[in-house]
Structures are given as C-alpha cells and as structure tokens.
Amino acid sequence: MSRFTLSDKAFDRLNLIFVLLVTLIIIYPLIFVISASISDPQAVNSGEMWLWPVDITFDGFVRVFQNEAIWTGYRNTIIYTVVGVLIHLFILLPAAYALSRKELMAKKAFMWFILFTMLFNGGLIPTYLVVKNLGMVDTMWSIVIPGVVGAWSVLVARTFFQQTIPDQLVEASKIDGASDFYLFLKVVLPLSLPIIAVMALFHAVALWNQYFNALIYLSDEKLFPLQLILRQILILNEVSADSAATAAGAAQSFSDQVKTASLVKYAVIIVSALPLLIVYPFLQRFFVKGVLIGSVKE
Amino acid sequence: MAVVKSVKRKGNSKIAKSFKQNWQLYIFLLPAITYFFVFHYIPMYGIQIAFKDYYANLGMFGSPLVGFEHFERFFDSYYFWRLLKNTLILNAYNLLLFPLPIIFALSLNELRNGAFKKWSQTLTYAPHFISVVVVVGMLVAFLDPNTGLINHVVRLFGMEPIHFLTSPEWFRHIFVWSGQWQSLGWGTIIYLAALAGVNPELHEAAKVDGATRFQRIIHINIPTILPTIIILFILNIGNFMQIGFEKVLLMQNNLNSETSDIIQTFVYETGLLEGQYSFAAAIGLFESLINIVLLVTVNQIARKVSNNSLW
User: Fold this and answer.
1) What would the pLDDT profile of B37-96 be if each residue is shown by its tens digit?
2) CATH 1.10.3720.10 fits B76-306, yes or no
3) A85 in the same domain as A50
4) How many residue contacts between A and B have a Cβ separation below 8 Å?
5) d(CA A284, CA A289)
6) Distance between terminal CA atoms of chain A?
7) In terms of CA atoms, which chain A residue is nearest residue B216?
C-alpha cells in the first residue's frame, strides 16, 4: 500500500513540474517582449537582454506615440470594434431570441438556413465580389459587415436563451398583453447580460485582431486599422517615413534608424496587445463561459 | 372535396393566427436572415463563376460558360500537386498535435494547489488573445538571423545562425508550433469542463482496488471525456483545410514558398492579386469540396465506431 502512495507523491511532483514548465514556456515570449520594449535596443539585439530589462528606456513608446499612422490605426480600430460589436448584437440577439421561442414556425428551417453556412460557403472570391458589388470596398463597412455574425454565435446565444428564459415567463407576460418587442427589451435583455457580455467580448477581440478583411478591401491608408499598420512595421519592416523624420531630424545615421526600428517594434506590440491582455484576466470567466455554452451539443 | 377544402382552410387559418400573434418574432429574425442571405447565400450562388469566364463588365450572367475548363487547368498545372501536398501536410501536422491540449488539461486537473492551477490557466490562455499579425511579428523578431533571440542561442552552441523564416524546411515547424503556443492553454477549457463531470465514486472505488493516480487517469478520466474528444476531433477535421490561412499568408515569402504555398494562399494570389476571379473561384470550390467530404466521412466513421457524432 505504501508503495502506491509513494508513487502517487512522485506523480504529483512530476505533474507539478510539467505544468510549471509548460506555463513558463508559454509566458516567456510575452515577458521577453515586455522587457525588450523598455530596454536599450543594443542590449536586445546583441542578446544581452534575455529576461529582465537592461538599460531601461521609454524611447520606443515615445516614438510609437509620435507616429501618425499608429494613432490613425488605433483610432480606426476602436471605431471598427465599437461599431462592429453594436451591429453584431443588433443582428444576433433578436434572431437568437426568436429562434429560441417555440411559437416560431419553421424554426428548424431557419436554423438550418443559418447553420448550413458553417458547412459550406461561397469562398473568398465570390464573397469578395459581393462586397465589391455592394460598393463597400474602401469604406468602413467592408471591415464591419462581412462576418458580422457567425452561425456559431447564433447557436450559442439561442442555447443561452432556451436555458435561461422560462416559457412560463414569456406566457405570463403575453397574457398581460405585452408585445414581443416589449418582452424582449424589458424582460429578456435584462436577464441576458452575461450572454451579451460574452458575445460582445468575443466579437470585439475578433475585430480588434483581424487584418485580412482590411488587407483585401482597403487601399486608402487613412482607413487602415491598427493590425495593417502593425503588419507594415513588424513584418514588412516599413517603419513609416514620418516617424523617422520626427525622431531626430534629417541627420540620422543608418544604425540609428535600425536601432529605432527595433525599439519601435517591441513597443508597438505592447501598445496594440496590452489592452486585451490587461482586460482579459478580469473577463476570463465570461470568455470561458462562452466557450462552454458553445460546446453544449443538442 | 369540401372536407379537404375546409381542412386546408383551417390549416391556413391556424398558420395565419400564429403569424398574427407572433409576427414580431419574424421581424426579429429579419436582419440575421438578410445578412446570411446576402453574405453567404449570394456568394454560394456566385460560385457559378468557377464554370464561367468572368468579366466584370459582362456580369455574372453575361459571362460565357466554359464548363470545367478552370478545374482542368488547375489539375493539369505543375503546381497542383505541390499545393495539395503542402496543404495536406501542414494540416496533418497540425492535427498530429491534437492530443497536446488534452494532456495539458489532464495535468491541470490533477493539480492539488487551486491557486497555482488558476494562475497557470490565466497565463496560458493569454496568447489566445494576441493577433496573428503580432504573433508573426514576434516570430520575425525572435528568429532574426542577426538579432533574434533564438539565433543567439544557436550561436552559443557554436553553430551558424539559421535563416528560419526564409527556409522551406523550417516553415511547417514554425507555423505549427507557434500555433500551438497560442492555442494550447485555450484548448484545455472544454476538456477541463468535461473533467469536472467525472464521477468521484469511480475514483474512490479504484483507490480501494489499489489503482495509482496514473492508472485512474487512463481508466477513468480519459474514458469520461472521450465523447468530448471525439466531437472536437470531428470539428477539427471540419476545419481541416482552412486552418490558419491568414497566418500562412503573413509568414510566406519567395524563399519559403516551396513549403508555404497552400491552396488558399494560391486562391488569394491568383484571384485577388492577379484578378483571375473564375480560376481562383474554381480552386476555392475544389478546396471546400475536399473539406466537406472529409467532414462527412469522419462524422460517419465516428458514428459507427463510437456513437458520437455531430449529426
């Protein structure tokens, strides 16, 4: 018997070490980026800085905040996210509620109409042509409207309504003469704040992080969201001209520019990702809830 | 005749009555149905350009029909096998790592220290919230041959720095493992919830029989979450061909295209960059069809073997 308890203890230790190791591996790149963003670029590029900041400097952030394009991108992303989430909720919530009500005729047909889009879609080119023919190219709507609601969200929200809004409540309100509009706005929505939060958060994260729609639909730089600007800076290595110009005037050596570029890189990652990373631990339970409601099979 | 008529009228009036009482519900549905119709069903209808030579000025109807010409051109082209191979290998590699979140979830579930478990979860979920652009940007920075962290380590071992992002032989590893870095923690959520449903009496009984922790995981925990595993596996297959195309596009360059050229990036290039709409739509359709066939097959197999399936 004692042999078993001993091996259980060993198991516990090994398991703890395993989880610790995985956690450290996952978190290390993030710590590195944070440290690099406030370290001297020389130390970062030479490999001297590998965990904690070396020769702390906030130059990177100063350069980022001086960069016109990043500001515009930031503003655009905020606008797209807010508008996108509002339209998302406006389309999603009433539909999911209607689909959760047994009085709705042809409910199955409506549901299939929506769910079929999970299985099959027109693909990139036909979708692009529709957006183009609607005149949405190079407008905010090309970012906000395509993909505004997914079949998965409808399924999740409908499941939530089915589980939380009792039939008796609906029937009682109807007998009292309440209309569906009134019922939905005054009774159902106040009871549904968790699902509204979940859906809004998921969609906000998706909008904040997406770049592909912007890449294919936008050519006007004034409309670029943050992710496209990030792509230019981080991947295409184009630190836009104005940041170099404002940095130190015309007399800037090449090595200085390289230094600036690497400094800006890490700072811009922080500036773009930090809002989500800071907010998310507080909202973690909502996100987890969203994943779990979504995994309930009928 | 009269009976039939009256029954029919009665049926109609029932529908009419229900509609009269609940018409507002249909208004609720209207925006969603309109959206799905315009942005999903019209594009499905638009797939017909794959069988036509689409000219913008002729429109979808006016463009001449060419049958399977685009498909034949694609199948006969020298890059067809390369694209298919790259797409399949990349996704199969990704699928190979499917057990990792399960293992991590089983591990987290065994932790006795609740606070540590919570911390570990919060920290490992975090990369899920980072955009692909930033992830690829981080890869560019970390893997830089001169200034990147990884190559400093490589040099420590006395080796020449490796040009990771421009080498075809490195592309798949970098793509798949950076994806795992982002999704490992997040992927445990559903399994952890399923593990919470394990019957504690089973564990008690197994303990009495002298089973070790490890044995109990294998014989109690895993069988309990097996239905969840199967469903998620099917869903993974369902996305088989379309995982991470946006990331591939960001990681792709002329030097690594030998392995990074996949069907979807090719659709993007030929369709949107070169304007060969019909040709690209045909390739896209080919890809969707493979996807559906895979999904239906796996679902069918799962239903036969285990009684767990999506439908």
Assistant:
1) 999 999 999 999 999 998 878 877 788 889 999 999 999 998 999 999 999 999 999 999
2) yes
3) no
4) 271
5) 8
6) 45
7) A8
